[in-house]
């Protein structure tokens, strides 16, 4: 039995419910591996587990993304070997990533190629695979299409912007400050709207000669929902990928017809990586872009596990840009 440190919480609430505890890690069961973490991803989705937006049993671990080195194999694990560098992301089945060591289902793991470090992997597995399905599975993009990207200076935003430029798209990003706007521009945004003092929908219409955009990627939710709809061209697609400002209020679907026969979807990464072949295809394309330098991963915040409370405070205060990780 191995003793290790892990961040856990015993009740839902503010960041202060997170505690660093000593826990036992046993030997892996059939289909599992024991993984020594090198780096752990910090994602806004983590706050949804902590605050009860995503209900889970209590007490529980925190985090769903990390990378590291396999220390021990369970029975029946044949696709990996001790010493392999791997990364993973998921949902309920991978909760507990904020830890030094843990047991992980082998079918959640992705082997890392030589050109990808563990820190880079922890910073991009969830964000990168999310960006991959948004760019390659949600909409049949054609060169010249225009997208509106909320939170353009965030972890997903910076990857989507770069990927969109590889596809020949025009990117209109939104940020809350000039500092973040500069970061967004440096990563491919053609136009940046500062939503703290600009009307997003009006500015989008100006930039598109009154037409609107093909697709909106909205990770903000409640505060931006209507302006996102008002930014779409006729028969455009609204992709709800998060609710940082709170859940979207109920609405009558007739609203979509009134605003131009719009489409709306609320996808989840889990449904785009459930099929092993599709997960591999998305991961391979992502890793190739990153290893070649076509897409750069910005790790702008590093924390230790003992700083989990502060890390969540920074996330919710929108103080972070790019990706954030815990270094083990």
From TrEMBL:
<dbReference type="GO" id="GO:0070402">
    <property type="term" value="F:NADPH binding"/>
</dbReference>
<dbReference type="GO" id="GO:0035925">
    <property type="term" value="F:mRNA 3'-UTR AU-rich region binding"/>
</dbReference>
<dbReference type="GO" id="GO:0003960">
    <property type="term" value="F:quinone reductase (NADPH) activity"/>
</dbReference>
<dbReference type="GO" id="GO:0005829">
    <property type="term" value="C:cytosol"/>
</dbReference>
<dbReference type="InterPro" id="IPR013149">
    <property type="entry name" value="ADH-like_C"/>
</dbReference>
<protein>
    <recommendedName>
        <fullName>NADPH:quinone reductase</fullName>
        <ecNumber>1.6.5.5</ecNumber>
    </recommendedName>
</protein>
<dbReference type="Pfam" id="PF08240">
    <property type="entry name" value="ADH_N"/>
</dbReference>
<dbReference type="InterPro" id="IPR036291">
    <property type="entry name" value="NAD(P)-bd_dom_sf"/>
</dbReference>
<dbReference type="InterPro" id="IPR013154">
    <property type="entry name" value="ADH-like_N"/>
</dbReference>
<dbReference type="InterPro" id="IPR020843">
    <property type="entry name" value="ER"/>
</dbReference>
<dbReference type="Pfam" id="PF00107">
    <property type="entry name" value="ADH_zinc_N"/>
</dbReference>
<feature type="domain" description="Enoyl reductase (ER)">
    <location>
        <begin position="13"/>
        <end position="326"/>
    </location>
</feature>
<dbReference type="GO" id="GO:0008270">
    <property type="term" value="F:zinc ion binding"/>
</dbReference>
<comment type="similarity">
    <text>Belongs to the zinc-containing alcohol dehydrogenase family. Quinone oxidoreductase subfamily.</text>
</comment>
<dbReference type="InterPro" id="IPR002364">
    <property type="entry name" value="Quin_OxRdtase/zeta-crystal_CS"/>
</dbReference>
<keyword id="KW-0560">Oxidoreductase</keyword>
<dbReference type="InterPro" id="IPR047618">
    <property type="entry name" value="QOR-like"/>
</dbReference>
<dbReference type="InterPro" id="IPR011032">
    <property type="entry name" value="GroES-like_sf"/>
</dbReference>
<keyword id="KW-0521">NADP</keyword>
